Amino acid sequence: MSFKASSLLSGEVDNLRKRSVAESTENCCDPEHHLRFTRLQTQPERLCVGPHHPDLSTLATPSPDGSVHHFCQFTPKCLLAISRGAHGNSPPRQGEEGWHDGTSRTTIRVDNEVEAHREANNYKFGFRKWKGNVTEKPIEDRSDIDKELHTDLSIVKHIAPVVTVGNIVYVFLFGWWISLIYLLICPVMFLTILGAPYGKVCLKLAWYVIWPFGKSVQRACHLVNISAMKPTNCEIIPQEHEDKDLVGDKDCAPLLVSSPLPIEIPVPLPLPKKTSKSWCRFSTFLWLLLGYPVLAVVHSLACVLSWLPVFSIPVAKMNSRILTTVLLMAPEDIEIHALDKTDVCETRVVLYCYQAFNLYYYKYTVQGINIFALNLLPLVFMTLIVGYTDREHKFFSAETMFTIAITSIIPLSYYIGMGIACISAQSNFAVGAVVNATFGSITEMTFYITALLRGHRAGTKCYEEIVKSALAGTLFGCILFIPGICMTIGGIKHSEQRFNSRSAGVSSALLFVSIGGVFAPTLFSKTFGNLVCESCSNTLGNATVPFICTDCHYDTTTADQHLILSHIEPLVYTISVLLPASYLIGLIFTLKTHAHIYDIHVSDGHGGQPHGHHVVHWSRWRALAVLIVATVLMASCADLCTVNIEPILSHSSISQYFIGVTVLAMVPELPEIVNGIQFALQNNISLSLEVGSCIAVQVCMIQIPLLVLFNAFYDVGFALVFSDIHLWASIFSVILVNYIFMDGKCDYFQGTALVVVYFIVLAVYFFAPSPRSC
Length: 774
Fold this sequence. Notes:
Distance between the termini: 103 Å
Mean pLDDT: 75
Transmembrane segments: 168-194, 285-311, 369-389, 395-417, 429-450, 470-492, 504-524, 571-591, 689-710, 716-741, 748-768
Pfam family, one: YccF
Structural class: mainly alpha
Number of strands: 17
Number of helices: 24
Low-confidence stretches: 1-104, 223-265, 602-608
Shape: elongated
InterPro entries: CaH_exchang, NaCa_Exmemb, NCX_ion-bd_dom_sf, YccF
Strand order of the largest sheet: 8-5-10
Radius of gyration: 33 Å
Strand content: 5-15%
Main location: membrane
Oligomer: single chain
Domain Sodium/calcium exchanger membrane region: 401-519, 623-765
């Protein structure tokens, strides 16, 4: 009886197994089935539930083992649910009745708890938005493009076409002169007689480096015919979890069985290195004395020249591997093998390169640092060395030094942003909020304070006007340009993008409060200040005819001291207290009492989630050290900017207003602009809009009150009274962007409109006369 039952059970399992495979095959292209599959797949994964909706945490989730035969892949992830607005594209799911009415949510998958915190911080008011990861994935979990970027050119994966434009350009930029050096060293090694084997190597490599593509450098002792080998990594074999009685009948087993854990056959490991006797030969000493030093200089120069443009990094990797590996091998071990299209198996060699340029290298990172920020780091140290040693401008003009110094601020802004993101992702909310509030504005504050100090020592108000222009330029630049360019680029890729209008409304309200508070003293001075005119004349010489006055403006500096001390200064100090208080209220509203408008739910990091597979790029202490060092370097570069900007302000034909609202205002924000564009390209326009709004709110509610506080303790003559052009440009920008944010959706047309308005405002500044103090 038991035998029959077991046979019946085995037969039922086989039938179920066949039916599961048939259903998965028939429904692989069915949209409805795909939707059901997406819903079911979230059940074994870990649902991220927050404290506002405890009812979702009680949902029963089947174990992964119980769903082995129904899913093609099981990848435990941390799910981060975020609102995408009332018109979100993601369909409602079971258990969402408790969510806020009119909003739906989408699920963002992250790999670990640290990344979950980073994503959640992006949606928190007052936190700096950061696109890049703060943890490193294992190489096997990365995309094919990312694996290709981080290869060491020692694996032959596929035979790609080698006759490309980039490879031809390589010949003219690098190949010919490196090959020529080898040809010049070749006879030198032959003349030594004992170094003749290395002369043959130089001849081989001379032909190799002029066109290395599609050729592999291998060790002769381990040389095999690749085309004759059986492919070892050409297919993915699913791992079987069935019992023996389920797989006993091989004839009845289906050809394709869906498996939750596909196993990829690993690449062959590097062969163990054997100690070579070539180091004891006299020819090796001749090579290290006559040939290798020259080639070391040549390949090092080629590495630097090909590394800096970023997109030619494969050439740098190839030269580095030749220098550190190939040239140190025994001459008889070096073999160059030309591959053809029939060599399709994946194997390991000493060196294989098939392309000189790769456009995807803009994504390349080293220890989590983007390659552009890494390549600009030497510019920072060069700026400091040259700037403080060449004060007489014997080698570089003041204009050149100003350009270099302002460019050096860009990578430092990136490092500060990376440090803030790393600390916030690894800390609790209180620490993250403090770090974002302090270091989030450190880039701009260092420049503003150094400029005010420079102007105070020089006894001129021109630097104060430059600081006010930079403040106003940052304000309407973040309100108009950053959202506009993100909407435009994102709208080209995605026809229409939607965002949470309620969260955008909170930012808009705070912008109105900010503008009202910042420009209140300016409106006050226009009401009660003195109207001062530069020149008045009566052309007819008749006292009955009114005077004709030109260049009239309201000036509080010549007003009654009682008016200034009793009314204007107390107003400024009152506003400097109310604005940070409003910022604090915004934090409490968006993060505590009304956090549901963002619909952010992050798990606590337990259960189902892969542990030990991620590596944090920067620890909290390392990130803090980077923040401190970057802040000191930022202050030094800002000081060099203010020192070398004086000739530009004195002799430039361009309005100083324009210099302030463009170069000084927007260059430090370039990393933020890049982050916003990346968010928009991923159809996450909500974060793109929050990037600009967050900076604008911090300018008004944190940076300006800090400048007032600094002036209270160390009087540098900073008065919170702006020119008319700053007043009306900022007010108009806030009104316009608030109108754009009303419907919760955008496209490239609205983005283009914002960008056009921004350039119109810049044109007004360009043709405006310079400030009177300049």
